[in-house]
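Fold this sequence, please.
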Amino acid sequence: MKHRLLLLLTVCLFSGIAYCQTDTLHAPPAVLPGFYADPHIAVFGKKFYLYPTTDGIAGWKSPSFTCWSSKDLVKWKYESVILDFPKDLTWAKEKAWAPAIAYKNGKYYYYFAAEGSIGVAVSDNPTGLFKDPLGKALVRKGMFRGQMIDPMVLVDDNGSAYLYFGQGNCNMVKLADDMISFDVKNVITIKPTGYNEGPFVFKRKGKYYLMWSEYDTRDPRYSVCYATSDSALGPFVNAMNNPVLKGMGVVKGAGHHSVVKIPGKDEWYIAYHRFKIPGGNGYHRETCISPMRFDKDGNILPVDVFEELKPVKVRHSD
């Protein structure tokens, strides 16, 4: 027995075999308690914020959104319900899905899916309360092909803001300066190879990264891929090493993500959901965070969903 153990340790030390490095039967814990999915992560001031879909309901029929905050990415504090459909909206009552937040003009703009349309709400604070400035959807159900869900907004270095959204196709458009309107004639629709839903765009070293989820969120193969461009509206070229986030072992259905950069550093983290461990499925998902890294050429390296998340402090804002 001792000889066998010694041989195994020797193999692990000198061969770099994956199973010696990663225990795929014991995943790190979720960062939020209970069922939450589609997390949008952001940093404002010296705090991190998470804006997820409330999960655990068949048909994803949650009627509200919550906000969570953290000083270190590891310990999260429940803030409050920040948008309650029956109380705060006149045009939708349920199916509160896949939110995203952006900051501009001294305001926080909260984009969300509701009953097959996309809305926007505004607040003076990242924890709300958020109010509906339009009294109607920003993107109506049926306005374009596919489902009008999964909004995301990138505010570029020059202050220009871009809206990305859609299931089945990825729609892109520059927002007006008010952040709550756009010219329908300027919408660009694309479908990268494998694209299903959950677009997320960020900018690093002058390059734009368009990421998305493949398959269906109820499918254990749910995963994340990406493409890059020199422009916020493309054209985007698919990466060669897709997918960069996927399940393995007890981790299933890893996808519908968002990305955050630590201010002042080239240090990145990816928030995503997976099937609840144990016994989860597409309606019982939990929120996780993992480090996300790049190679010397700017390619996103495969995310290790088993890597332990260590505390991170925000020293100053960009």
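The chain has a mean pLDDT of 93. Residues 2-292 form a domain with the Tachylectin-2; Chain A fold (CATH 2.115.10.20).
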